[in-house]
Amino acid sequence: MIQVKNLKKSFKDFQAVKGISFDVTKGEIFGFLGPNGAGKSTTINMLCTMLSSSGGEIIINDFDVIKQKDEVRKSIGIIFQENTLDEKLTAKENLMLHCKFYKVPKKLREERIQEVLEIVDLVDKKQILVEKFSGGMKRRLEIARGLLHYPKVLFLDEPTVGLDPQTRAHIWEYILKLKEKEGITMFLTTHYLDEAEISDRIAIMDHGEIIAIDTPNQLKAQVGGDIIEITTKDNTIALKEIEEKVECLEVSVKDKIIRLKVANSDEFISDFIKKLDTPITSLNIRKPTLNDVFLTFTGRDIREEEASKADQFKQQMKRMS
Ligand SMILES: Nc1ncnc2c1ncn2[C@@H]1O[C@H](COP(=O)(O)OP(=O)(O)OP(=O)(O)O)[C@@H](O)[C@H]1O
Ligand SMILES: [Mg+2]
User: Does residue 305 surpass a pLDDT of 60?
Assistant: First the structure.
């Protein structure tokens, strides 16, 4: 459904996107994960015909983004990073405007509007001015608008940024419902690790390049082991002990937490605790996350503050299911 070859974008002498290539198949949710400034929005804007590229090739729904702009535009729906609704109009008026813009036949407009409002549960809010909407409602309305002309591909740039965990979880419910019901191909960008997990495949982007591309599980498997995090009474002594007595794949320290990568935590842990004389004050064993994947490839965290929010979000999703 989407084919990208050697896509580039420069702003003056700054290369924001450095020759990336990837394919997205029909019905897939494809996620772009990366820190601020990685080049995610720049890429999505080129794919959506909103920004010209500095080189490379983009094919969407068999149309060339440069030579067949109009056909591409008819094939896609876009949900931007920033709110682009008209606040002074009602929900329905916003949707009607979009119908006109996309030349949805007059006879079909009412029906389509009703249909998309149902998908995002906003039917009873259609006569309300958008300025009275909450952040989550606005996002839902934008998703509805993106669906009005039955796009083959839906582009979502940070669809839930700035929303609380509960609203984010709801938005994701709608997005997943869409995939199941309508079979729409989705291309999304996010810097929320947990959201990226929802994707069928993820491209991890950093400094304008794709550094890894695979299913979430395959990516995590590439980390090659489990993660054990401990805090101790004295990290200096503990680290020395680990170096002398413990066999593990990797050791690092961050914010007073010692992080060990081991092939198999079940086999490792009891022996490890016995070997260490320094008292352990906390212990956490976990499977690798996408942040660990990013860390493995770049040596940096993707975005520290998101890690704790991710747990909150997962709990919320669990509560709702
Ligand atoms: N119009 C522009 N002119 C100059 N530089 C730009 C322009 N748009 C983006 N950039 C730069 O290109 C880089 C990539 O920006 P982009 O918006 O694509 O990042 P992003 O991955 O979407 O980040 P975020 O997570 O913050 O949304 C950044 O360094 C940004 O400053
Ligand atoms: Mg962006």
Answer: no
